[in-house]
Design goal:
Layout lengths: L2 E3 L5 E3 L3 E2 L5 H14 L3 E3 L7 H10 L8 E6 L6 H15 L4 E6 L9 H13 L3 E7 L3 H10 L6 E5 L7 H9 L3 E5 L12 H9 L4 H11 L3 E2 L6 H8 L8 H8 L18
Parallel strand pairs: 3-4, 4-5, 5-6, 6-7, 7-8, 8-9, 9-10
Antiparallel strand pairs: 1-2
Length: 274
């Protein structure tokens, strides 16, 4: 495993396991398998509806709690200071944990303009020791600028859609300047066209790896934290098997040239669903 040190000194695995859209019972089995394989970072959220399943997998694991890194998120309809504190307690109860390692705002939902108050609730949770780190998801530069201006604790990371067709270079540069990591969701573009890209396939073949492994390796070398999702045991293993090879500078340049700023998911500036 490779690790990063977040801006508050906390260590986080660079490769984690995501459970977006995985039903609760299925999530329990998938997380059990992921922990068995060697994953130590698990990423869930209230809106995924599987915090209980993730919690059961953690409870059943022989891995000590302090060796696991658990992330969950406050959903859009729970934003606002008091609502967020309540939502956090409910997430903690569903997970069956005493604390989470990382708590994130899921979307800024700029139309409602309460992400600053929501983040202040995260700061309280952090200062009270209920979470070890706080951060955000899907924040554009303008949203981050407001937090940096109006809040006290710099987010440790910004979890955003990122893959070879949406490389987020400008956002990454801003985040790096403020010591904020970028964490990639949909790192394989939901198994879409990027896995069938001729350049990616050629690079993968040259290393004796699959296209998914080549892309995950690109993320690690691009200095992203990355959370691939799968419920298929063989794929869970495959996605973890990315630490025994390195892409060359030429490989990295070829993938850099694939960027189209192409989103698979919603644009955070327009995502105001509650």
């Amino acid at each position: 495993m490779e690790f990063v040190t977040l801006n508050n000194g906390l260590e986080m695995p660079k490769l984690g396991f995501g459970v977006w859209k995985v039903p609760d019972d299925e999530a329990e089995q998938a997380v059990k398998k992921a922990i068995e394989v060697g994953y130590r970072s698990i990423d869930t959220a209230k809106i995924y509806g599987n915090e209980e399943g993730v919690g059961r997998a953690i409870a059943a694991s022989s891995v000590p709690r302090e060796e696991l890194f658990i992330t969950t998120k406050v959903w859009n309809s729970d934003q606002g200071y008091d609502n967020t504190l309540k939502a956090f307690d409910e997430s903690l109860e569903r997970l069956g944990l005493d604390y989470v390692d990382l708590y994130l705002i899921h979307w800024p939902t700029p139309q409602f303009d309460d992400y600053v108050e929501t983040y202040k609730a995260l700061e309280k949770l952090y200062n009270d020791g209920k979470v070890k780190a706080i951060g955000v998801c899907n924040f554009h530069i303008e949203h981050l600028e407001r937090l940096l201006k109006e809040c006290d604790v710099v987010p440790v990371l910004n979890q955003v859609e990122c893959h070879p067709l949406l490389q987020q270079a400008e956002l990454k540069e801003f985040c790096a300047k403020h010591n904020i990591y970028v964490e990639a969701w949909s790192p394989l573009m939901n198994g879409g066209e990027v896995l069938n890209n001729a350049v990616v396939k050629e690079i993968a073949e040259s290393h004796g790896k699959t296209p998914a492994q080549a892309i995950l390796r690109w993320h690690l070398q691009y200095d992203n934290i990355v959370i691939p999702k799968s419920v298929t045991p063989s794929r869970i293993e495959e996605n973890f098997d990315v630490f025994d090879f390195e892409l060359t500078a030429e490989d990295m340049n070829k993938i850099a040239a694939l960027n189209e700023n192409k989103r698979n998911g919603a644009d955070p500036a327009e995502m105001n669903v509650r």
